[in-house]
Automatic annotation (TrEMBL):
UniProt cross-references to Pfam families, sorted A to Z: DUF4118 (PF13493), HATPase_c (PF02518), HisKA (PF00512)
Record's subcellular location: Membrane
Major subcellular location class: membrane
Keywords per UniProt: ATP-binding, Kinase, Membrane, Nucleotide-binding, Phosphoprotein, Transferase, Transmembrane, Transmembrane helix, Two-component regulatory system
This protein's name: histidine kinase
Enzyme Commission number: 2.7.13.3
Membrane spanning stretches: 12-29, 41-68, 88-106
UniProt-listed PANTHER family: SENSOR PROTEIN KDPD
Reactions performed catalytically: ATP + protein L-histidine = ADP + protein N-phospho-L-histidine
Topology relative to the membrane: Multi-pass membrane protein
Amino acid sequence: MSSGLKKKKYQYIISISIVLLVSLLCFSVKDEINYRIVALILLLTVSVIAMLFEIFPVLLSALLSAFIWNYCFIPPIFTLDISNAEDLLMFLSYFFVALLNAVLTYKIKQAEKNVRDKEEKEKTIVLYNTLLNSLSHELRTPIATIMGTVDTLKDNNDKLDNSQKLDLLNDIDIASIRLNRQVDNILNMSRLESGTLTIKPDWCDIDELVNNVIQKVNTSNTHTVYFLPAANLPLFKIDIGFTEQILLNLLQNSILYTPAGSVIIIEVAYELENCVLIVRDNGPGFPEEEIPLVFKKFYRLPNTKIVGSGLGLSIAKGFTEAQNGTIVLENNIDGGAGFTVKIPAEVNFLNNLKNE
């Protein structure tokens, strides 16, 4: 049985059960309450069911409640006969109002769903337009660099000395790294949104992980990156790939959005069963009103001249939360900004014994 059929089956069962339960409760005190009050209670019950379920279970609830009210509460009880015109008119009114309530509630829910779908569609279109606009430049620039440099090497190979060739090859290398980073960002965001992430915890020497990430980042000799390892850190059981990507994105963000000559400091620590990573800089920091927005997809600070897809921090947050961790951005008291990542992790202090 498909999930849709199962869901409808449960809705029918729950709707009928609710009507029967309310009817039973009312019948148990029928001597204390007037049958007209029972009609209002049953009508309220149908209204609640209409807010929760689809149209056909609600219509069944309305029909069942009308039958039970007539058979069990309208004198003479335990028959379908209605002895006077007033009760007949009330029964017909109840039946009509119950059905009308079910249909109108369903129509309202459908209208609200259509509005939500339309808003979601418009939001998706805006997001994809933003993505295409940013990536059109982010991907085109390194591709154009690679193609242009290769053409130069092909057409002028005999005229270039070794130093010039090395410079051109270095340009290709930088462009390739930039292109690869953007493709990785797109793939990582796709994995986050599809919910296909699989956490693979493994024992990790966090100092070694940080050093590996620093070696992967191109500072273009414009920034200084300091790593301040803590003493006697244990081995952490974390997803090494995810954690590397988190740190890599934070480090790249600091390099992109701080001026040349800025200093970036990376710290690691073990705190309250958490592996803690801190990346802070002495740049201009973030406007306070923008801090709650920086982890959103495609978000970039207003009026920024830096070209980017706006995915790096969003991916860092997604990979952190996938490991049940938290990531926080705060401006430093003495200037600049700092990201603090906390990832719950098992620890093993055998690393300390090895170092000793």
